[in-house]
Amino acid sequence: MKVFNAKNGHGLNLKSEHFSDLSVLYEDFSFTLKDVLKEFSRSDILSALRQHRIDLPALIALLSQEAGTELEAMAKRASEQSLRQFGRTIQLFTPLYISNHCINRCVYCAFSSKNHLKRHKLSLSEIEKEAENIASTGLRQILVLTGDSPKFSSVAYIADAIKILSKYFSSVGVEIYALSQDEYKQLADAGCDSLTIYQETYNKSLYAKLHPAGPKKDYAFRLNAPERAARAGFRSVNIGALLGLGSWQEDVFMTAIHAEWLRQNFPHLELGISLPRMRPCYEDTKEATGGDIDTFQVQVVSDRDFVQALLALRLFLPEAGLSISTREEASFRDNLISLGVTRMSAGVSTAVGGHVVDTDDNIPQFEISDTRSVDEMVNSILKKGYQPVFNDWFGRY
């Protein structure tokens, strides 16, 4: 088996002070990976699947073109592995957008500062109304989202929101702009126990093109955010890349390495990985956006590619949670349950508020494909022979 000459992986040392120190080794990785992925044979894939613990060369094999012909074998092992680790359970949560003010100019996002949409921010009383409504569905896990705007979504404002939500939910997570360690500590002290943050793409040059302005353009600061949250006392960290921005194999590989680095350096951390895939979003006219749309073309990630990515991650990281969002269609999400998914969202709105507080000009961050309510999601999970889990008891006891 020919492999990429990387000095990392299971059984090898991934110790470094910051993940960004290690990621420098992969700045030329996309050029190497493109060639290496063509070199694997069917016997290489089957040999990789026979490993007790999938190592780095085997991970690369499972991301190769040839592995796409062995999805059934990969799925069988992934399913068995997930049942041993997690049983037949699916954690349920929902996101709550509390502000869409943003000073970043991400070329693929509806909340980008280049888009002249109506901006909204929930008051603390509105946040409480949203919390009451969501809690009435039985959900006890919630994810708070904001745009990147320290002026309108300050750390103090987010901390106040967390304190309110902690009265209703056993687990309160955040998916917000990258913070310092001290700022994450403020949120942890307020009751936040988990961070979700996507690097979007690990390709540094592509990242620069997609984030031309705003604080988010600082690649390394965002890359090291998960470790700052871990050091600040967060119990759980969820990472990932937005599939469709660049090469899905490259981004899935780097997501896996990032997760493994976190596992080795923070053994107490509960790790999760998400696989968001590009969806259509609101965008102003070309004149209003300054022509940013011309700099970006979505890379098609087929359902088959998506499944291969999910299976490779499940096999390489057997203890990590895997989340699938409502970006994916309902039937597709249901079919992924038995392949290693452990966490799913339900009753979702990607507009600010959206459950109680809503207006006609409240533009969502992106279009969702699975619009099922919490009850509908529960019924679908039960039909698949799995148990929906509402509470994250570990987060409170």
Summarize the structure in short.
With 397 residues, the protein is α/β, with parallel strands linked by helices. Helices cover 38% and strands 11% of the residues. The chain contains 16 helices and 9 strands.
How would you explain this protein's 3D organization?
The chain is of the alpha/beta class and 397 residues long. The protein has one domain (79-389): TIM Barrel (Alpha-Beta Barrel), CATH 3.20.20. Helices cover 38% and strands 11% of the residues. The protein has helices at 19-23, 29-36, 42-49, 56-62, 71-86, 124-135, 155-165, 181-190, 204-210, 219-223, 225-231, 248-265, 286-289, 303-316, 330-336, 374-383; strands spanning 89-99, 141-146, 171-175, 194-196, 236-240, 270-274, 321-324, 343-345, 387-389. The protein has an eight-stranded parallel barrel with strand order 1-2-3-4-5-6-7-8, surrounded by five helices. Strand 3 (171-175), helix 8 and strand 4 (194-196) form a beta-alpha-beta unit. The longest helix has 18 residues, at 248-265. Residues 1-12 and 284-291 have low confidence and may be disordered.
CATH class: Alpha Beta
Rg computed from alpha carbons, rounded to a whole number of angstroms = 20 Å
pLDDT average, as an integer? 88
- CATH topology: the name is TIM Barrel
In oligomeric terms, what are we looking at?
Answer: single chain
Number of helix segments? 16
Low-confidence regions? 1-12, 284-291
Distance between the termini: 47 Å
Question: How many structural domains in the coordinates?
Answer: 1
Question: Can you write the helix and strand succession as a string?
Answer: HHHHHEHEHEHEHHHEHEHHEHEHE
At the fourth level of CATH, the homologous superfamily is Aldolase class I
The spatial strand order of the largest sheet comes to 1-2-3-4-5-6-7-8
Strand content: 5-15%
Shape: globular
Count of β-strands: 9
Biggest sheet record: 8 strands, parallel, barrel
CATH architecture: Alpha-Beta Barrel
Helix coverage percent: 25-40%
Helix/sheet category: alpha/beta
Protein name: Tyrosine lyase ThiH
Cofactor: [2Fe-2S] cluster; [4Fe-4S] cluster
Domain Radical SAM core: 88-333
Pfam family, one: BATS
